[in-house]
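REQUEST ID: PR-0412
SUBMITTED BY: lab tech R.K.
PRIORITY: routine
TASK: structure prediction, single protein chain
INPUT:
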Amino acid sequence: MVKGLSMYLVREFREEDVYDVFRIAYESLTEKYSLELFMDIYYAWPSGFLVAEIKDIVGFIAGSQYNGTARILMLAVDKNNRGKGIGSLLLRKFLFQCKKEGIKSVSLEVRTSNKSAIDFYVNRGFQIISLLDKYYTNGESAYIMWKML
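STATUS: complete
OUTPUT:
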């Protein structure tokens, strides 16, 4: 365990967390999402939506699952808490939850320009498997990344 990470609690998202998660997503992610989308993600797979908190929520990971596979939809950490291992902790707990539920693989999309995110996932066993041309609303392409569990 990384020093200092024991002070972070990772737990399942609760409905009252939606405003904190929305704020972190709005500040951290290029795409802008509605509050309703976060609730839809939660209702579809509650155990696949996790938050990290100390006193306040400092990061989250949200995914979907279907037929033995999971997809990471979003992973974000508050700008004041980046570089502290919170993203790694969230991903580790998410992958643990996937294994517990019998999920065999996880995929995600990442902007081709987001070198730090690509490196983050590669360093945790994900591989780039294909390109989605003009995937994002601004026309930027995405890599599909994948990992067997």
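NOTES: The radius of gyration is 15 Å.
REVIEWED BY: pending
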